[in-house]
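Researcher: Sit down with what I've pasted below and flag anything odd:
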Amino acid sequence: QELDSEIDNYEDILYQLYTDEDLAEKILQLNENQTSAVTRNQIRRELRSVFWLRDHITSITVVAQNGETVFYDRLSTSLQTNPCLHDFELSDASLFSELSSRNGYTVFPTRYATHFANNDYYLFYIGHRGLNEKAITRTDAVFLMSIDAALLKNALGKSSLSPEQAYIFVIDDTGHVMYHPDALQIGAYTGETRSDLQNFIAESSFLDGENLVYYTQTSAQTGWTVISVLDCAPFTAAIDQRLLISLSIAALSFLIAFAFV
């Protein structure tokens, strides 16, 4: 529920932008080639204005129908290249085509994006087409927000068990890893079946134990699945030890009782 609530918060911020009439008017100028450096800077400032609302927003990009792109990215000072979209799987034109054809939010899987200030950033993306009263039958632009995957780690909270005993990871509805404590597994494909998932856990496990079990909880809202992996060995060993002690006491009691017969 905490994870769903956090995603809602970021979608709400995107909603503020893609329904903003003043911003829509500036984007209309962008599409009609009436824009200037001043207009682009005004759009960039409006994008920047929502960053303070949440810590994990890394960039917001607007792709206009005519292919013009304006973005604000806190991981770069560049106005020409957006590192948060570096090597993104979709071109600007493909991104516009995909998002403009959908009514709801589209979430793109987490992936490595850039290295900034001595940190590697893994980001996931939420997109939506622009909406405004003057463009009911057309889409002037699409919006894409990139979000630091650290949000998912924070939303999952801390486990009462140590990292040597258990860990949690998240996959989306396509089976791709959205968050994993081992960053190398982020973006990996876990397969289509439960058996595939079991194999993925066994081969990529954060734990060394052989008695691994896992529990899943799927969100009806996002379609994401939170997977908790637990090493049962320490617990079964403790049970076995207690069982051995109990059997030993029982045997000793029997021997003592027999000796006095």
Notes: Residues 237-261 have pLDDT under 50 and may be disordered. The helical segments are 2-18, 21-31, 37-48, 92-100, 150-156, 194-204, 233-259.
